Prior knowledge:
The chain has one domain (about 5-185): endopeptidase fold (from Nostoc punctiforme) (Alpha-Beta Complex). The radius of gyration is 16 Å and the shape is globular. The protein has helices at about 15-25, 65-70, 85-100, 110-115, 130-140, 175-185, and strands spanning about 5-10, 30-35, 45-50, 55-60, 75-85, 105-110, 125-130, 165-170. Helix content is about 30%, strand content about 30%. A hairpin with a 7-residue loop joins β2 and β3 (about 45-50).
Amino acid sequence: MPNRDIYIIVSHTPSVVSRIIKQFTHTPFNHVSVSLDAELDYMYSFGRRYKYFPWIGGFVHESLTSGTIGRFTETEAIILKMNVDEEAYDDIRGTLEDMQEHKYSYRYDTLGLLLAIFGKTYKRDKYYYCSEFVRELLVDHGIEDKDNFEKIVRPMDFLNLPDTSVIYRGRLHDFPMQYEQIHNG
């Protein structure tokens, strides 16, 4: 079977909430998303549902031009490419489509995130914060071994995965131009 690529986007928006999280974590990036397309037209994660109101969150479809990421053109990111087999790719696509169809049954795990900041874990069904979601997606579909992650996973941890390559580092808003230059040479 031919292989396919998936993309992991580790980012930091200059929003107030992101800056607060950054103060607690002392890391340059505090959000992670996953995409199945190289243009990043559809990125999936757990975050705020409304770009101007951070207190209601859940499963979200993100893009470079809309939502919170689209609002902040200064968003910094590292984009990782990961090669997976066709079956895993199709399974992930199916999971994401199902989650999108039932997105309102998923909630942002604010309590889990707060506890994680202090080194504690607490898991509830259909509640996620971004890095917890991406880890579970990769582990449940056999792409990564759960031992490749700490008990509490943070967005920066994805930069250490063995089977990824960095394809971009910089302002996420500038990625489409870089992508076009790379692919149209």
